[in-house]
Amino acid sequence: MRLQGKTLLITAAGQGIGRASALACAWEGARVIATDVQPALLETLASEAPQVQTAVLDVRDGAAIAALAAQLPPLDGLFNCAGFVHEGSILGCDEAAWDFSFDLNVKSMYRVTRAFLPGMLDKAAQGSAPSILNMASMASSIKGFPNRFVYGATKAAVIGLTKSIAADFVARGLRCNALCPGTVDTPSLRGRIANAPDPVQAEKNFIARQPMGRLATVDDITPMVVYLLSDESRFVTGQALSVDGGVTI
Ligand code: NAD
Protein backbone atom coordinates (compact mmCIF):
# COMPACT_ATOMS: atom_id res chain seq x y z
CA MET A 1 0.00 0.00 0.00
CA ARG A 2 2.00 2.93 -1.34
CA LEU A 3 -0.26 5.67 0.07
CA GLN A 4 -1.22 4.06 3.38
CA GLY A 5 -1.98 6.64 6.07
CA LYS A 6 -2.13 9.59 3.68
CA THR A 7 -5.07 11.97 3.31
CA LEU A 8 -5.39 13.31 -0.22
CA LEU A 9 -7.73 15.75 -1.93
CA ILE A 10 -8.38 15.61 -5.68
CA THR A 11 -10.27 18.22 -7.71
CA ALA A 12 -12.34 17.33 -10.78
CA ALA A 13 -12.54 13.73 -9.57
CA GLY A 14 -15.98 13.10 -11.06
CA GLN A 15 -14.72 11.70 -14.35
CA GLY A 16 -11.64 11.20 -16.50
CA ILE A 17 -8.13 11.33 -15.04
CA GLY A 18 -9.30 12.79 -11.71
CA ARG A 19 -11.78 9.98 -11.10
CA ALA A 20 -9.32 7.25 -12.06
CA SER A 21 -6.72 8.89 -9.82
CA ALA A 22 -9.11 8.93 -6.86
CA LEU A 23 -9.72 5.21 -7.27
CA ALA A 24 -6.04 4.37 -7.82
CA CYS A 25 -5.00 6.33 -4.72
CA ALA A 26 -7.72 4.70 -2.61
CA TRP A 27 -6.60 1.26 -3.79
CA GLU A 28 -3.09 2.21 -2.57
CA GLY A 29 -4.45 2.86 0.91
CA ALA A 30 -5.05 6.62 0.92
CA ARG A 31 -8.01 8.36 2.47
CA VAL A 32 -9.21 10.23 -0.62
CA ILE A 33 -11.47 13.27 -0.62
CA ALA A 34 -12.76 13.29 -4.19
CA THR A 35 -14.28 16.61 -5.23
CA ASP A 36 -16.07 17.81 -8.34
CA VAL A 37 -18.54 20.52 -9.33
CA GLN A 38 -21.05 17.91 -10.59
CA PRO A 39 -22.75 16.07 -7.69
CA ALA A 40 -24.15 13.32 -9.93
CA LEU A 41 -20.65 12.24 -10.96
CA LEU A 42 -19.61 12.01 -7.30
CA GLU A 43 -22.60 9.81 -6.45
CA THR A 44 -21.55 7.17 -8.96
CA LEU A 45 -17.96 7.42 -7.71
CA ALA A 46 -19.03 6.84 -4.10
CA SER A 47 -21.03 3.77 -5.14
CA GLU A 48 -17.96 2.38 -6.94
CA ALA A 49 -15.56 3.04 -4.06
CA PRO A 50 -17.23 3.39 -0.65
CA GLN A 51 -13.87 4.18 0.98
CA VAL A 52 -13.61 7.38 -1.10
CA GLN A 53 -15.13 10.42 0.63
CA THR A 54 -16.79 12.85 -1.77
CA ALA A 55 -17.49 16.58 -1.59
CA VAL A 56 -19.05 18.91 -4.12
CA LEU A 57 -16.50 21.64 -4.88
CA ASP A 58 -16.39 24.30 -7.57
CA VAL A 59 -12.73 25.26 -7.86
CA ARG A 60 -13.84 28.70 -9.09
CA ASP A 61 -15.55 29.40 -5.74
CA GLY A 62 -13.04 30.70 -3.21
CA ALA A 63 -15.52 30.76 -0.31
CA ALA A 64 -16.46 27.11 -0.86
CA ILE A 65 -12.78 26.13 -1.01
CA ALA A 66 -12.08 27.95 2.28
CA ALA A 67 -15.10 26.30 3.92
CA LEU A 68 -13.97 22.82 2.84
CA ALA A 69 -10.39 23.46 3.99
CA ALA A 70 -11.72 24.50 7.42
CA GLN A 71 -13.63 21.20 7.73
CA LEU A 72 -10.88 18.82 6.69
CA PRO A 73 -7.76 17.62 8.48
CA PRO A 74 -4.41 18.78 7.04
CA LEU A 75 -3.62 17.08 3.74
CA ASP A 76 -0.65 14.91 2.85
CA GLY A 77 -1.36 15.30 -0.84
CA LEU A 78 -3.29 17.60 -3.16
CA PHE A 79 -3.98 16.89 -6.84
CA ASN A 80 -5.22 20.01 -8.63
CA CYS A 81 -6.72 18.24 -11.65
CA ALA A 82 -9.51 20.57 -12.81
CA GLY A 83 -9.09 22.07 -16.25
CA PHE A 84 -10.93 22.93 -19.45
CA VAL A 85 -9.86 22.66 -23.10
CA HIS A 86 -10.76 25.72 -25.16
CA GLU A 87 -10.36 25.00 -28.87
CA GLY A 88 -9.13 27.67 -31.26
CA SER A 89 -6.35 30.08 -32.13
CA ILE A 90 -5.94 33.56 -30.65
CA LEU A 91 -8.45 34.78 -33.25
CA GLY A 92 -11.11 32.48 -31.82
CA CYS A 93 -10.42 33.39 -28.19
CA ASP A 94 -12.23 36.48 -26.95
CA GLU A 95 -11.53 38.00 -23.54
CA ALA A 96 -14.34 36.07 -21.87
CA ALA A 97 -12.88 32.76 -23.12
CA TRP A 98 -9.38 33.83 -22.03
CA ASP A 99 -10.62 34.80 -18.56
CA PHE A 100 -12.67 31.62 -18.13
CA SER A 101 -9.76 29.35 -19.06
CA PHE A 102 -7.28 31.16 -16.82
CA ASP A 103 -9.77 31.15 -13.96
CA LEU A 104 -10.55 27.44 -14.18
CA ASN A 105 -7.14 26.13 -15.25
CA VAL A 106 -4.77 28.37 -13.26
CA LYS A 107 -6.41 30.62 -10.67
CA SER A 108 -8.26 27.60 -9.27
CA MET A 109 -4.86 26.10 -8.40
CA TYR A 110 -3.86 29.32 -6.66
CA ARG A 111 -7.13 29.27 -4.68
CA VAL A 112 -7.08 25.61 -3.69
CA THR A 113 -3.36 25.48 -2.94
CA ARG A 114 -3.45 28.66 -0.86
CA ALA A 115 -6.30 27.24 1.22
CA PHE A 116 -4.67 23.88 1.93
CA LEU A 117 -0.97 24.81 1.99
CA PRO A 118 -0.77 26.00 5.65
CA GLY A 119 -2.04 22.62 6.87
CA MET A 120 0.33 20.79 4.56
CA LEU A 121 3.27 22.84 5.88
CA ASP A 122 2.22 21.94 9.43
CA LYS A 123 2.38 18.29 8.41
CA ALA A 124 5.80 18.84 6.86
CA ALA A 125 6.99 20.45 10.11
CA GLN A 126 5.88 17.28 11.92
CA GLY A 127 8.11 15.19 9.65
CA SER A 128 5.78 13.96 6.91
CA ALA A 129 6.45 14.75 3.25
CA PRO A 130 3.42 16.46 1.69
CA SER A 131 3.13 16.62 -2.08
CA ILE A 132 1.18 18.84 -4.47
CA LEU A 133 0.51 17.71 -8.02
CA ASN A 134 -0.82 20.15 -10.62
CA MET A 135 -2.37 19.04 -13.90
CA ALA A 136 -0.59 20.64 -16.86
CA SER A 137 -0.35 19.09 -20.33
CA MET A 138 2.11 18.41 -23.12
CA ALA A 139 0.27 21.36 -24.75
CA SER A 140 1.98 24.07 -22.69
CA SER A 141 5.50 25.46 -22.49
CA ILE A 142 6.56 21.94 -23.52
CA LYS A 143 5.05 21.93 -27.02
CA GLY A 144 2.73 24.06 -29.12
CA PHE A 145 -0.34 22.56 -30.80
CA PRO A 146 -2.70 24.15 -33.32
CA ASN A 147 -5.97 25.46 -31.91
CA ARG A 148 -4.84 25.19 -28.32
CA PHE A 149 -4.00 28.89 -27.86
CA VAL A 150 -5.40 29.71 -24.44
CA TYR A 151 -5.26 26.11 -23.27
CA GLY A 152 -1.51 25.97 -23.99
CA ALA A 153 -1.03 29.36 -22.30
CA THR A 154 -2.84 28.22 -19.15
CA LYS A 155 -0.96 24.94 -18.93
CA ALA A 156 2.36 26.77 -19.37
CA ALA A 157 1.26 28.97 -16.47
CA VAL A 158 0.56 25.85 -14.41
CA ILE A 159 4.16 24.75 -14.93
CA GLY A 160 5.42 28.16 -13.80
CA LEU A 161 3.11 28.16 -10.77
CA THR A 162 4.36 24.66 -9.91
CA LYS A 163 8.04 25.60 -10.09
CA SER A 164 7.46 28.72 -7.98
CA ILE A 165 5.71 26.78 -5.21
CA ALA A 166 8.40 24.10 -5.37
CA ALA A 167 11.14 26.72 -4.99
CA ASP A 168 9.43 28.54 -2.13
CA PHE A 169 8.76 25.46 0.00
CA VAL A 170 11.45 22.90 -0.87
CA ALA A 171 13.42 23.75 2.29
CA ARG A 172 10.30 23.24 4.43
CA GLY A 173 9.76 19.70 3.14
CA LEU A 174 6.87 20.29 0.73
CA ARG A 175 7.10 19.13 -2.89
CA CYS A 176 5.19 20.37 -5.92
CA ASN A 177 5.21 18.86 -9.42
CA ALA A 178 3.24 19.13 -12.65
CA LEU A 179 1.90 16.30 -14.79
CA CYS A 180 1.92 16.63 -18.59
CA PRO A 181 -0.14 13.92 -20.26
CA GLY A 182 -0.49 13.28 -23.96
CA THR A 183 -3.97 12.73 -25.40
CA VAL A 184 -6.05 10.74 -22.91
CA ASP A 185 -9.31 8.96 -23.68
CA THR A 186 -11.71 10.72 -21.29
CA PRO A 187 -15.32 11.94 -21.51
CA SER A 188 -14.26 15.46 -22.50
CA LEU A 189 -11.96 14.14 -25.26
CA ARG A 190 -14.89 12.04 -26.55
CA GLY A 191 -16.96 15.24 -26.54
CA ARG A 192 -14.32 17.09 -28.59
CA ILE A 193 -14.24 14.21 -31.09
CA ALA A 194 -18.05 14.06 -31.32
CA ASN A 195 -18.31 17.81 -31.88
CA ALA A 196 -15.74 17.86 -34.70
CA PRO A 197 -17.02 18.36 -38.27
CA ASP A 198 -15.65 14.87 -39.13
CA PRO A 199 -15.50 12.83 -35.89
CA VAL A 200 -13.84 9.80 -37.52
CA GLN A 201 -11.02 11.92 -38.88
CA ALA A 202 -10.80 13.87 -35.62
CA GLU A 203 -10.20 10.67 -33.68
CA LYS A 204 -7.55 9.58 -36.19
CA ASN A 205 -5.84 12.95 -35.81
CA PHE A 206 -5.81 12.71 -32.01
CA ILE A 207 -4.34 9.18 -32.23
CA ALA A 208 -1.74 10.29 -34.78
CA ARG A 209 -0.32 12.83 -32.32
CA GLN A 210 1.14 9.99 -30.24
CA PRO A 211 4.05 8.12 -31.89
CA MET A 212 2.94 5.08 -29.88
CA GLY A 213 -0.07 5.02 -32.21
CA ARG A 214 -2.88 5.19 -29.68
CA LEU A 215 -4.61 7.39 -27.15
CA ALA A 216 -3.59 7.05 -23.52
CA THR A 217 -6.08 5.44 -21.19
CA VAL A 218 -6.56 6.92 -17.74
CA ASP A 219 -4.75 3.85 -16.43
CA ASP A 220 -1.64 4.93 -18.34
CA ILE A 221 -1.65 8.16 -16.32
CA THR A 222 -2.63 7.11 -12.78
CA PRO A 223 0.63 5.28 -11.93
CA MET A 224 2.46 8.61 -12.27
CA VAL A 225 -0.16 10.29 -10.07
CA VAL A 226 0.30 7.66 -7.35
CA TYR A 227 4.09 7.93 -7.64
CA LEU A 228 4.13 11.73 -7.37
CA LEU A 229 1.78 11.75 -4.37
CA SER A 230 3.71 8.98 -2.61
CA ASP A 231 6.97 9.10 -0.71
CA GLU A 232 8.59 7.14 -3.56
CA SER A 233 9.04 10.50 -5.31
CA ARG A 234 10.52 12.15 -2.20
CA PHE A 235 13.53 13.59 -4.11
CA VAL A 236 11.41 14.93 -7.02
CA THR A 237 10.15 18.50 -6.94
CA GLY A 238 9.59 21.37 -9.36
CA GLN A 239 9.33 19.00 -12.31
CA ALA A 240 6.95 18.84 -15.26
CA LEU A 241 6.67 15.11 -15.90
CA SER A 242 5.45 13.98 -19.33
CA VAL A 243 3.41 10.81 -19.86
CA ASP A 244 2.77 11.38 -23.54
CA GLY A 245 3.26 8.26 -25.64
CA GLY A 246 6.40 9.69 -27.19
CA VAL A 247 5.00 13.01 -28.41
CA THR A 248 7.99 14.94 -27.09
CA ILE A 249 10.73 12.49 -28.07
P1 NAD B 1 -12.75 15.69 -18.18
O1 NAD B 1 -12.43 16.98 -18.91
O2 NAD B 1 -13.44 14.62 -18.94
O3 NAD B 1 -13.55 16.01 -16.86
C1 NAD B 1 -13.36 17.24 -16.22
C2 NAD B 1 -13.96 17.19 -14.84
O4 NAD B 1 -13.78 18.50 -14.31
C3 NAD B 1 -15.46 16.91 -14.82
O5 NAD B 1 -15.75 15.92 -13.87
C4 NAD B 1 -16.07 18.26 -14.43
O6 NAD B 1 -17.27 18.15 -13.70
C5 NAD B 1 -14.94 18.85 -13.60
N1 NAD B 1 -15.03 20.29 -13.49
C6 NAD B 1 -15.31 21.17 -14.46
N2 NAD B 1 -15.37 22.42 -13.97
C7 NAD B 1 -15.10 22.31 -12.64
C8 NAD B 1 -15.04 23.24 -11.59
N3 NAD B 1 -15.27 24.55 -11.79
N4 NAD B 1 -14.76 22.79 -10.34
C9 NAD B 1 -14.54 21.48 -10.12
N5 NAD B 1 -14.59 20.54 -11.08
C10 NAD B 1 -14.88 20.97 -12.33
O7 NAD B 1 -11.40 15.13 -17.55
P2 NAD B 1 -9.96 14.91 -18.20
O8 NAD B 1 -10.01 14.92 -19.70
O9 NAD B 1 -9.41 13.75 -17.46
O10 NAD B 1 -9.15 16.24 -17.81
C11 NAD B 1 -8.73 16.44 -16.47
C12 NAD B 1 -7.51 17.33 -16.49
O11 NAD B 1 -6.49 16.73 -17.29
C13 NAD B 1 -7.74 18.72 -17.08
O12 NAD B 1 -7.00 19.67 -16.35
C14 NAD B 1 -7.18 18.59 -18.49
O13 NAD B 1 -6.76 19.84 -19.02
C15 NAD B 1 -6.01 17.67 -18.23
N6 NAD B 1 -5.50 16.96 -19.40
C16 NAD B 1 -6.35 16.17 -20.12
C17 NAD B 1 -5.87 15.52 -21.26
C18 NAD B 1 -6.76 14.66 -22.11
O14 NAD B 1 -6.35 14.34 -23.25
N7 NAD B 1 -7.92 14.24 -21.64
C19 NAD B 1 -4.52 15.68 -21.63
C20 NAD B 1 -3.69 16.48 -20.85
C21 NAD B 1 -4.20 17.12 -19.73
Overview of this structure, please?
The chain has 249 residues and is α/β, with parallel strands linked by helices. It folds into two domains: 200 residues, NAD(P)-binding Rossmann-like Domain (Rossmann fold), CATH 3.40.50.720; 31 residues, no CATH class. Helices cover 46% and strands 14% of the residues. The protein is built from eight helices and seven strands. A seven-stranded parallel beta sheet has the order 3-2-1-4-5-6-7, with helices on both faces. Strand 2, helix 2 and strand 3 form a beta-alpha-beta unit. Helix 1 crosses helix 8 and helix 3 packs parallel to helix 4. It binds nicotinamide-adenine-dinucleotide. The site of nicotinamide-adenine-dinucleotide has 29 residues, from helix 1 and helix 6.
List descriptors.
single chain; 249 residues; alpha/beta; Rossmann fold; 2 domains; seven-stranded parallel beta sheet; 7 strands; globular; binds nicotinamide-adenine-dinucleotide
Number of strands: 7
Q: In sequence order, what are the helices and strands, one letter per element?
A: EHEHEHEHEHEHHHE
Enter the CATH topology name of the largest domain. Rossmann fold
Overall shape: globular
End-to-end gap? 33 Å
Indicate the CATH architecture of the largest domain.
3-Layer(aba) Sandwich
Number of helices: 8
What is the gyration radius calculated from CA atoms? 17 Å
Low-confidence stretches: none
Mean pLDDT: 97
In helices, the fraction of residues equals 40-55%
Strand content: 5-15%
Count of all domains: 2
Order of strands, widest sheet:
3-2-1-4-5-6-7
CATH class of the largest domain: Alpha Beta
